[in-house]
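Ticket reopened. Same input as before:
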Amino acid sequence: MPNGFIPLSGDLLGHRLDPATGKVEAEIVWVRNENRPTGPAENAFVLVEPNGSGSRARYISWINYFDLEYAEHRQPGRWALVEPAQSFRQDVQWQPFGWSQQQVVPTIGDAILDNLTS
Amino acid sequence: MAAENAHSVKLNSPYQKEFVIHPRLPYVNGIFDLGPNTLIASHPPHGRITEHLHDHLHHMHIRYGFEIPRQPLTGFDASALEVAMLVKTAHRVDCNPIFVDRGPGSEGICLKIAGQDVHWVHNEEVGKKATKLYESTGRRLPKGYYFSGFRTSDVDEREVWYYSREELLRAIGHGLRADQHFQATWREPRDEPIEPYAVTICLSDSETYFHTFFQLQPTITLGAF
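Engineering reply: fixed in the latest deploy. New output:
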């Protein structure tokens, strides 16, 4: 395993897709075991995306399939559920609070916030 | 036909159709190790507690008790309970089940209606409804806040769940007392504490006109209850 990487395992619940090609851009994983302090906490939802020759992962605030369904509703064709969940394991760079210019995931309340700001 | 209608309820006003619920101080002390009168409390990331949704992130607990008094529940066949919370736009909030006791490991023991734990699902229509009700009396949402709404749900927290009048009457019995817990966290997780703030709550249901607003303070004002 390359330096700075950790083994990440959990349940794969969904994908973020390139809507033009359908290619998987990122994966949504529900972590089922405790990995702190070097990795994510038990029960956390994380987003895993390719970064150069490897992958990086960060926390997201989602808690269940409803969040994926909400994301798919907000951005049709951009998200796909994996149901039933599949086993996931990959070595990743763990960056719990993200990286610069990260893509914000849709989050419940977005539609209401749109109206507040419009 | 006349016999079928003999037992129907005639309502002169839609306001007679009510599902009354009263806010109270929390009933069960110590779920998630919160003290008896703690309504709002922010925590840094900590160890795992089952049913705690954001224990690994900076989060703010929001909790209150409520009482559903014995009542006839006339005028509707089924209803979903609703709750909306006025939280900051940088935050999302998620609901725990309704708790009626404290179990091992700081967990709560869930209220069951119709044989299953009562859960909640996000519902933006409930958030809009709370906003409309709040502003219909001259109030305006403070800048930077929104009502995050929920309805009772299936155990997977994906679909709204309506309880029949009979199921509700059985659960309420001579009066139901329970606690509700939520956890707010950053919509986009960040390594930054959440400064505790007062949260306005709206309780209502999907079928009647009844609703009630109340506010939870990080530090309780004695004399307010």
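Chain B touches chain A through 30 residues (CB under 8 Å). Chain B has a mean pLDDT of 92. Please confirm and we'll close it.
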